Amino acid sequence: NASSKIRNFSIIAHIDHGKSTLADRLIEYTGTMSTRELKEQVLDSMDLERERGITIKLQAVRLRYKAKNGEVYELNLIDTPGHVDFSYEVSRSLAACEGALLVVDAAQGIEAQTLANVYLALENDLEIIPVINKIDLPSAEPDRVKQEIEDVIGIDASEAILASAKVGIGVEEILEAIVQRIPPPKGDDEEPLKSLIFDSKFDSYKGAIPYIRLFDGKVSKGTNIRMMSTGKMFEITEVGVFTPGMTIVDELRAGQVGYIAGSIKNVGDTRVGDTVTDNDHAAAEPLSGYRKAVSMVFCGLYPVETSDFDRLKDALEKLQLNDASLMYENETSAALGFGFRCGFLGLLHMEIIQERLEREFGLSIITTAPSVVYKVNTTAKEQVFIDNPALLPPEGKIESIEEPVVKATIMVPSEYVGTIMELNQEKRGTFLNMDYITASRVSLYYELPLSEIVYDYFDQLKSRTKGYASLDYELIGYKEADLVKLDIMLNAEIVDALSFIVHKDKAYSRGRKLVEKLRSLIPRQMFEIPVQAVIGAKVIARENIRAMRKDVLAKCYGGDISRKRKLLEKQKEGKKRMKQVGSVEIPQDAFMAVLKMD
Ligand code: GDP
Ligand code: MG
User: Fold this and answer.
1) For a surface tag, which of 137, 185, 196, 551 has the fewest beta carbons within 10 Å of its beta carbon?
2) Coil, strand or helix: which one is 210?
């Protein structure tokens, strides 16, 4: 049987435990690429990902491995993103596999995302091969970590492989374990085509390209495929595999992993988790587990220069081609003019898009503070979803407001338990449970409002625990809370882009801190500017930005001309990210100030 020589696997790990480095070693060892070709960490192909040391976009590579038993195997390594924002994509790539390498740092032990990923792997019935990485480090404690894997995850770690992806220890042993311990894919070439989309990308010549894992059937040039969630149909013009570049093959069969192309114009038609079938010989049922990507965090994006609106629109269109989870629609702000309301999977996703707009498209943009989606029950007995605080109905029309809540898992050395509890208290958390992983490490479970996580939660967690805490969370639903909208008035006018929704108990302190912060961030202008925080018609805080005394250049009178020019340049530089709002110039930082309040 042809598929007996196939193994489909993933690598799961907490960030920085060595997933990408290990993937590189496997690619190198199997000679899939020459060392010269092998750029550092080929699987993390975007510059941004490399800089941040995270994997955002999944990819797949076919490795050809001649095992010790003399047989040649086709190993498909399916990469998973390493951040909590992308957990649905992780679950879909794991669904494409029969096994997973569980990489745990020998010095750090199990972290929150190790656990979250293991659960996803277990849900998908994967064979898990524990790999204890970084054993070259002097601080490595492989025996302790082995014990942790047994105690916390409850899987047998006696055959865990001790490895160093950096130095190259244990690589052959890992490849042998993949062949021997991970089962080959089951499936039948003669059954109707049933394949899972676990990723996609956009190619300017070939269109949107779904990456698929076939469970049953085959696909080749000329097959008429149908996307089972949308019913859209396409004729296949090319099928291929990743080596890691795209390599055309004649067909893909049950058990295999590869890509298909068929003049699919829109990546929105290649949804992760969807099932692709053959329309002329269709599967009765799609694969289970499909769901549509939901945006968790929204913000406004506005060009600094009004004339850049069309360029921003083009840029978003282009980014969306490669990223079906990016949502955007037109939005108008009284303060900022024409722009876009954008939806993201999480904060990291948001930051990545912002950075790409600036770096890849050279745009200068103003981003408003991120907001979650509130559910508002109106007095007219309607339910409206609000992703922009400025659009909250007036107080008199609101019966109640519900906010999204998450279940958070925080793993931390036990000496920080008190600190974490304090932080969660401040963040309106509800304690659920606590587990000792070992005598010195603890898992804490909390219910927390998503909006509190969006604010500086993660930074706080890291700084209060010297970087030792790790976090994972999942959305569990909506809960009613006592929330109000806080508006900011500059020069007696509400700046809609600075409005935010906050818990009543925190409104005063946040309002006070925000006006203080704004006073320090907004440069002095020719006249005095009052900065006020208001709830409804009530002013809760006020500061004044005093008028500028003299022209900056006055200092330079009589000075040399080059110094003067430098100053002017500097002023211009500073202006780049300033937005004229009415008669006041507001810097980008001011719009994000609300995030850095506590
Ligand atoms: P990922 O976030 O799981 O993909 O982790 P990376 O592969 O990017 O590795 C994170 C960091 O750990 C990098 O600086 C690697 O060079 C380092 N690293 C990875 N494997 C090893 C190892 O076996 N030993 C040591 N000492 N460092 C390693
Ligand atoms: Mg990585």
Assistant:
1) 551
2) strand
For the CA of 55, the nearest atom of ligand 1: 4
CB 94 within 8 A of CB 58: no
First to last CA, the chain: 62
Structure tokens, 173: 């042993």
For residue 130, cis peptide bond before it (omega within 30 degrees of 0) = no
Helices and strands of the chain, counted as H and E runs? 14, 33
ipTM for the predicted complex: 0.99
Half-sphere exposure of 91 (CA within 13 A, CB side): 19
Q: Using a cut of 0.90, tell me whether the model's pTM lies above it.
A: no
Interval 247-304: pLDDT, tens: 999 999 999 999 999 989 887 888 889 999 999 999 999 998 887 777 889 999 999 8
Which position has the token pair 């469970």? 215
152 C-alpha vs ligand 1 centroid, how far in Å? 23
Q: How far is the CA of 457 from the CAs of 298, 425, 434, 469, in angstroms?
A: 17, 12, 19, 12
Coil, strand or helix at 130: strand
The rounded Å distance from CA 257 to ligand 1 centre is 27
Q: What is the DSSP letter of 387?
A: S
